[in-house]
Amino acid sequence: MTRIWNFSAGPAALPEEVLRQAQEELLDWQGAGCSVMEMSHRGKEFMSILAQAEADLRELMGIPEQYKVLFLQGGATQQFAQIPMNLLAGRSADYIVTGSWSKKAVKEAQRIGTVRVAATTEDSGFTRLPTAEEIKLDPFAAYLHVCTNETIHGVEIPAERIADTGVPLVADMSSHILSRPVNVEKFGLIYAGAQKNIGPSGVTLVIVHRDLLGMAPLNIPTVMDYAVMAENGSMLNTPPTFGIYIAGLVFQWLKRQGGLAGIDAVNAEKARILYECIDNSGGFYTNPVDPDCRSRMNVPFVLADAALDAPFLAAAKEAGVLGLKGHKSVGGMRASIYNAVSLDAVKALVGFMNDFAKRNG
Ligand SMILES: Cc1ncc(COP(=O)(O)O)c(C=O)c1O
What we know:
The chain has 361 residues and is an alpha/beta fold. The protein has two domains: 16-256, Aspartate Aminotransferase, domain 2; 258-360, Aspartate Aminotransferase, domain 1, CATH 3.90.1150.10. Helix content is 34%, strand content 16%. It has a seven-stranded mixed sheet. The site of pyridoxal-5'-phosphate has 11 residues, from helix 3.
């Protein structure tokens, strides 16, 4: 068996240790005589898996007691609608647009209610963050929405740029959650699809301050109401049980890596060597993003000669390096270096890129 060096944007690489444990437990989970996929979500076995996953996540992120943790379905895309459904309460919400995902969030929220774009960097091709002067906030907004890591454009908002604006801050952290320590208390609501740093697709994590619960109008579907989901411990209906189980194994793996501080150090080094490779390539590879907001998880880059794109991808495949094709909307290349992508994997990528540049530059 050969495993590839996997730089896919998502669904993405999972820690091999986690996959091996899941494989070992697949036919018989800890003496239950069946797999996690085959057991009742209300039985004591699965209830213990869910409780442990939540406890480990709370410990990793330092989630205070006044926040509810929900394991939902529907992906981050469903949250684009569910957030305004629950939180608008007839008011308007502000959105800062720093890439394709926050732009999509605006479009979806507009189907539900009134939305203002408080700032956008689209004129730069989403290669920078807005300046403080460019951000025009509504002090009466129901919430302010940001995407703290734009997966397609490779723009990440550094923690020190997250300021208190006086309204609840809602953050799409799909592609960098758990990659570094975070101060949860700065946020009213954090959400993330699982398929990058949490586990398999099908689980959506929502961490919401209890003050934001119970604001939804009565005519929204029950399954979309955060308060109902919270009251029922994410078990109003059948939750994505196997995905939650794998997420729980990923949380335990993260704890063994030294928690978020431990993985933060590895992620910083991975990003450093990859950006160094790009910046020192003499223009063979370039990344267009302002250095102060370059993503540590998603690194887009282009080759100076686009005619080399196909040979680059073919040679990468030959070298066992996969998942580098950029998103169709922007083209070029992108290496996603999530938590489960090891420093060795990034070293292999950098080695391949240096070699390809030498042979073709
Ligand atoms: C930042 C961000 N938000 C939202 C989404 C949409 O997620 P989903 O496909 O889970 O709906 C993605 C998917 O890649 C993403 O990267």
